[in-house]
Amino acid sequence: MENLFLVCIIPPVSIVEDIDLIRNDISAKYNVHESLKRPAHITLYNPVKLSSALQEQKFFDALERACFMNTFEQVLKNFSAFAPHTIYIDVEKNDEIMKLQGQIKKELKPLALLPEKNNFKFTPHLTIAFKDVKPETFESIMNEYQEKQFKRTFTINNFSVYKYMDKRWRPYKEFQFKHIENKPKPLSLFD
Predict the structure, then answer these.
(1) Quick one: which of 80, 88, 87 has its CA closest to 138?
(2) 3-182 under CATH 3.40.50.720, yes or no
């Protein structure tokens, strides 16, 4: 048994539809299709392969501990890139999204699911083209999109886990935020 999971934020359907129009337009104009194989999402933790039921149980238990958060507003604004291969919609950094990603990373760290070299600096973004984007295509897409305006705001009150099944990423589990004051306190000898 080996399963591949992705921890992410999925925007509301109306925003996903707007993003998919952009992704489909880029795909048709520039013959790049990789981003269409994934849902429109903000990655919170790189995809991980889990090879046992026990490992999966620990993974989901850790994510359950990471969901003590307040609901927050998130802004998606304009276009940017990781040159020379990835174009994305910028996810405006705010304390809450950084805290959410930090909590997930902290809770999953003891499981050692990712190599230390994958200890990436979190740059929240929503990819619209990558992998099959050649350098010359990258320049063309960026020339078209760098001056375009895009802005959407939505409320985040959960995060999702997608599972790779039948050669597609599919929704698997959703974690609703829980009130911070309900988070269990660590046991201490001195309380």
Answers:
(1) 87
(2) no
